[in-house]
Structures are given as C-alpha cells and as structure tokens.
Amino acid sequence: MTRRTALEPLTGLVVDRDGERRARPELFDELLAEPQTRILPLWRGRSLVTAGDGAASLDLIEPDRQTTALVRVYLGRVVETGTPVIAVTLTDAAAAELEPDESRWAGLREAGAVLDERDYALFVEAVAITNWHESHTHCPRCGTPTVVEQGGWVRRCFVDGNEVFPRTDPAIIVRVLDDAGRILLGSNAMWENNRWSILAGFVEPGESFEAAVIREVHEESGVVCTAPRYLGSQPWPFPASVMIGFEARAVAQGDVPTTPDGHEILALRWFSRDELWAERDDLKLPGGSSIAHAIITEWYGGPLDQPPPAEGHRAA
Ligand SMILES: [Zn+2]
C-alpha cells in the first residue's frame, strides 16, 4: 500500500474514525479488552517508527505495554483489518521505559514521506488531535481546567458545562499562473537561501477560501489573480492547520510585475518549466510529503528530478 500524493482523489478511507462509538461510557475499557487493539504511542509529537528500505512503518504496540498516559484518544479502526487504534501521549519517563528495539522516536515531518497511507493517516490524526489537547486544557469561558470526554474528541468544563471541540485552522496554498503558464514562486523570509515555494496564508474569520486566495496573493506579491480553482487538501498539524490547495490565474497579461511584501516574502519570480529544470541545482523546492510539492509537480507534469515533459503530455 503506497501513500497517494495530496492531490489524488480520495478513493476511500483507510481509517474509519468510528464516531458513534466515541460516546460509549466504557469505551476505553472495551477497547483495551479487545485483543486486536493497538496503541500508537506519542512522545513530544513523535512516534515509534521502524525504517526500512526507503519506507518506514509505525510500531503500534500492544495494550499491555502501555504505560501511564497523559491523554488517550480513540483514533478509530483501520478499515482493512478492523484494528482499533488508541493514541496515547507519554511522559518522558514512560517514553524512556518503552525502550524500542528496532524502532526509534521520529516526527511526522521526518517520517511522513516514507510511511504508507494507513500509517500516515494514523500519525497525522494522532498528532493533530493531541496538539489540540496540549494547547486547550482550560475552559475558554471561565478558565477552569476541562476534562476529556467522547474518546478524546471533546473537553468539557464542569463549572459551566461548556463543551470545547477540536479546532483546525484553514490555510490556503495557491499555484498562481501567468498567461504563458509560468508559475509564481516566492522565497520566504524564514527559509534558507534560494528555497522557493508557492504562496500560502491563513484564512481569516468570515472569509471564504477563494477570497483568502485572492487576498493573500495580492498581499504577498502585489499580483491580482482570479478564478481560484480547488485542487486538493492536506492536514498540516504544525500545530493545527489544514492546507487547502488552489490554482489561480493572474489577471494582467504578459510579464506581470510582482512586489514582495518584504516581511513574509522577500523575493518572487515567474518560472517556466524549462527554467525550473535548468536551475534545479540552485533551487530548493518543497519536500516530497507536502501539498506544495504535489501542486508544483502536477503543474510541471512529472517528477521534478527529470526534464519537463513536452507540451501535450501535460495535465494543463
Ligand atoms: Zn467553564
């Protein structure tokens, strides 16, 4: 089972989140009594990963090896096997006790590109929901510490009954093209030298994704674009985002001038496919597990480490 790229259509779920079961009062006792159940241990955002030949897999452990958990979340069942999986966050001491043999603690950014679809889905779900628990421990109304309910998917305040649900912060990421089909790439102030990617930014309250695309592109580049078209999305729990991918077209014709905002974006450039190929040794582009990589690759028409396919063999 290989993991699809972020832009391939979702053909089915690999993890059934089993939302109905979350409400059962004895949920964790029931799950831990099932011999099939596995634990996905998390320690400081990392999990146990065994690396092999260009691939890697999560080490899901048996419940009897579970030690003191800070937070438990029922992630759901693996569709293919029916295996229920519980994510547990561990203290430093508990993590040290696990003492993996072949595996080691690895982060999602590091392991994401080499995990298969099932393990990637479990890891990203576990990191996203436990990040939320870490930063939402108190009631936003009255400040009382909240308790975890619904298998880890709700926190409740016992003073005022307020239920707090997990949140995800949407961010748009956009491939802007000019009338010659060139792609607009920017170099971010926080990145190393000569690293380029497509533009991105958070959706603001009360804003549609499409409006956010047009606003962000204008703010970061001065380019007026139109007709945002949805491409695909990717959860990005660093710490709590989902990236929503778009393509948009510059309104102006010819060589569209660009103005970097000078804060987030320091340099901007339109690249043809041939330029991207010719300058490949000098350009650093987004890593293979990111939607930015998938969006650029789809425009390029093939793998970025090979010459661009001839026109007519491209998607658009
Ligand atoms: Zn409260």
UniProtKB/TrEMBL annotation:
Q: Which InterPro entries match?
A: NAD-cap_RNA_hydrolase_NudC, NADH_PPase-like_N, NudC-like_C, Nudix_hydrolase, NUDIX_hydrolase-like_dom_sf, NUDIX_hydrolase_CS, NUDIX_hydrolase_dom, Znr_NADH_PPase
Q: Which cofactor does it need?
A: Zn(2+); Mg(2+)
Indicate the enzyme's highest-level EC class.
hydrolase
Tagged with keyword Metal-binding: yes
Record key words, sorted: Hydrolase, Magnesium, Metal-binding, NAD
Span of the secretion signal?
none
Domain Nudix hydrolase: start-end pairs: 166-293
Q: Which residues form a coiled coil?
A: none
Recorded protein name is NAD(+) diphosphatase
